[in-house]
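Shipment paperwork, digital attachment
Item: protein structure file
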Amino acid sequence: MPDTPAPACPTCGTPPPPGSPGGACPRCLLAAGLESGGPGDRSAPPSPEEMSRHFPHLEVLEVLGQGGMGIVYRARHRNLDRMVALKVLPPEAAREPGFPERFTREARTLARLQHPHIVAVHDFGETGGLYWLVMEFVDGPNLRQVLREGSLEPAQALAIVPQVCDALQYAHGQGIVHRDIKPENLLLDRSGCVKIADFGLARMVQRAPVDLTLTREGQVMGTLHYMAPEQYRSPDTVDHRADIYSLGVVFYEMLTGELPMGVFPPPSRKAGVDARLDAVVMRALEKERDRRWQQASEVRTQVDSIAAGPAAAGSAPGVVPAQLSST
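Attachment content:
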């Protein structure tokens, strides 16, 4: 009697784990969830139940987000009995030359970043061709979600920026550049503490947006409207000052509710905020990096000085309003 053939993934032929949905291997299962036929036409990611089968040490609970850098799930670490975030990188990233070595090198570097305003990496690895990171779970919204609810008060922006500066100064001191500072990567927990997510992922995955929705593989790293000019002009020369430019974009957006595109006025003329902020923001947004603030700590010093001075336009700089800390 002939032997029964071993089960194989219908897409790639790889033997799947027992109980895998549709007999698909983890890589093809996730790829199906990341495929997109165009803007607004993204397939549903694999369900938490499906992903739990491939990560037995985790109880995967829900999808938190999905984008060009992969899919993020909220999960409970069974042994540690604590909430974590599981980030699974895009399957196509593993096909890039040298990716396994780069992933391991960058993940180890990220795991060494220990700072109160940086999302911690607890573990990383590869399962069935999928590369993943287990990270600190931040119980709260990202800055994009807060901005969508309405423009922040100047006091809120002045409470957020110094925390981001502290994290950037620490990482830059370790020789690490984020390359993708944007509201989606700034998380706010329920106490108002800001944490930067996805440090190093732009370098690890090496993907860059063509527009706000579609992505392509390449060496240019960062999100288009937040990228410093040198990130798309000469990506091989990018240094920590690219993060300062991106922070300037986020700062401008927090103060005015708009992006600094084309010829744009300083924040005080756009939104009536304290005119002392103009010099801080506009210098961060200099096209030539030698003319920007050279260290994130310089931005913090300027913001702290303004926050300690008289309140402008009826605001109270430096105080985190209740709606931010309780979101």
